[in-house]
Write a structure and sequence with these properties.
Length: 106
């Protein structure tokens, strides 16, 4: 836990208030990832490697980590290494529960 608290402080310094998107919807839409839903779940997981981010709009840590996830998603997509998806946990409880997500970000 101490290590996580230290890293969180480092991230806060790296992305001080105002440098990340103040509107959570803007931060999440800027990511090079597709929204994962119950409708596209089967197709999404059947095509090779996937990276899935589960977030909540109200989660400040999710907003802090959004730029790093965006970088990773863009790189993985550009190299053809993985398809990146995101799940808005509170808005998609069936998938959140299927993945056994209890905290955000995950």
């Amino acid at each position: 836990v101490q290590c996580n608290q230290q890293r969180y402080k480092e991230l806060q310094q790296e992305y001080p208030s105002g440098t990340h998107h103040s509107n959570p919807e803007d931060a999440e839409r800027a990511i090079a990832a597709e929204e994962l839903t119950t409708e596209n779940w089967s197709q999404a997981i059947s095509g090779g490697w996937v990276l899935i981010k589960v977030y909540a709009n109200y989660c400040s840590e999710c907003r802090i980590l959004a730029p790093k996830f965006r970088e990773a998603a863009e790189y993985l997509k550009s190299q053809g290494l993985a398809t990146c998806y995101e799940i808005n946990g509170p808005q998609n409880m069936p998938l959140k529960n299927k993945l056994n997500v209890r905290v955000y970000p995950n």
